[in-house]
Amino acid sequence: MNRLQGKRVLLTGASGGIGRAVLKQLSASGAEVVITGRDQPRLKMLAADAPEQIQTFAADLTDTANLDALLAFCQQQGGIDVLINNAGISQFSAAAGQQLTALINTNLLAPMLLTQLFLPMLKQRNGTILNVGSTFGSIGYAGFTGYCAAKFGLRGYTEALQRELADTDMRVLYLAPRATDTAINNTAVKALNRALKQGVDTPEQVANALIEQLISGKKRRFLGTAENIFVRLNALFPSVVDNALGGKLKQIKQHFIGTGVKNSAEV
Ligand SMILES: NC(=O)c1ccc[n+]([C@@H]2O[C@H](COP(=O)([O-])OP(=O)(O)OC[C@H]3O[C@@H](n4cnc5c(N)ncnc54)[C@H](OP(=O)(O)O)[C@@H]3O)[C@@H](O)[C@H]2O)c1
C-alpha cells in the first residue's frame, strides 16, 4: 500500500493517547476509519471531527461476542483493508498482585482473535494487520510480568503469522513503542521513568512512526535508539541485561512497594 487515501481501517484503542494521535493522522490521510473502545460518548466525540470518515463501534474486546458483532458491523460498512490492534492495558506491581486474566485477554487474546476473524476479509483485499507491541514485548522488566508476558506473546504471534503469510500479498507488521506519555502509565510508572531518566515519546511521535510503517510496510519497528540496542542485546546476551536491570531493581521496587502510591493501573 503506497497511500492511505480511501483505505478502510479498523483502529482499536482509538480513544487512548496513541489511538487518538493515530486517528488524527489517518483522517488527515483520507482513510475511512472504524474506531473502537469501551466508551461510546468518547468515541462519538472523536468521530465528530470527521463524521463522514469515522464510524464508531463501542465494545469491550475481552468479550468474544463483541468481536463477532464488530466483524458484522465492519462487513456492513464495506469491509476493511487495515486492522490496527492498538488497544491495551498495563499494570505495574509485584507479580503476586498482577491481574493476569485482564492483561492477557486485552493485550494478547483480543488481537489474536480479531486477527483470526478478519483474516479472510483482509486476505481477499491484500490487506494489512499492524499489531502494537512494546519494548516490553522483547525485554522482561520487573513490575510488568503480566504485561511483558502478553506483549512477548503478541510479538511471537505476529512473527509466526508474518512467516505463514509470506507467500501472500497480505502484510503483517509489528510496532514496538517505548515509554509514551499516555494514561496507560499511572503515577508510579511516570515517577519511575523520571527517576531512571527513561526517554518518553509523545503519542504523536508514535503515530508518525505507525503511519510511516503502514506506508512502507516495514515488518518490525522498535522505537527509541537505546531501546533498540537493549532489545538486540537482550536477545543475544540476556545476562548483560540481567546485570544492567539488576542494578536498578531496588529503585524499580521502591516505585511499586510500600510507597503509598497507587501501584497498579486500573485494569
Ligand atoms: N504508553 C506507553 O508507554 C506504551 C508503550 C509501549 C506500548 N504501548 C502500547 O500502545 C497501545 C496504546 O496504548 P496507549 O498508551 O494509547 O494507552 P491508553 O491511552 O491507556 O489507551 C488504551 C486504549 O485501549 C482501549 N482499551 C483498553 N481495554 C480495552 C478493552 N477491554 N476493550 C476495548 N478497548 C480497550 C482504551 O479504551 P477504553 O478505556 O475507552 O475502553 C483506550 O482506547 C497499547 O497496546 C500499549 O500497550 C504503550
From TrEMBL:
Family matches, as SUPFAM superfamilies: NAD(P)-binding Rossmann-fold domains (SSF51735)
MF GO annotations: oxidoreductase activity
Lineage: superkingdom: Bacteria
Pfam families: adh_short (PF00106)
Domain Ketoreductase intervals: 7-182
Tagged with keyword Cell inner membrane: no
Stored PROSITE patterns: ADH_SHORT
Keywords from the UniProt entry: Oxidoreductase
InterPro entries assigned to the protein according to its UniProt record, in alphabetical order: KR_dom, NAD(P)-bd_dom_sf, Sc_DH/Rdtase_CS, SDR_fam
GO cellular component, one term: membrane
UniProt family annotation: Belongs to the short-chain dehydrogenases/reductases (SDR) family.
Name listed for the protein in its UniProt record: SDR family oxidoreductase
Organism of derivation: Rheinheimera lutimaris
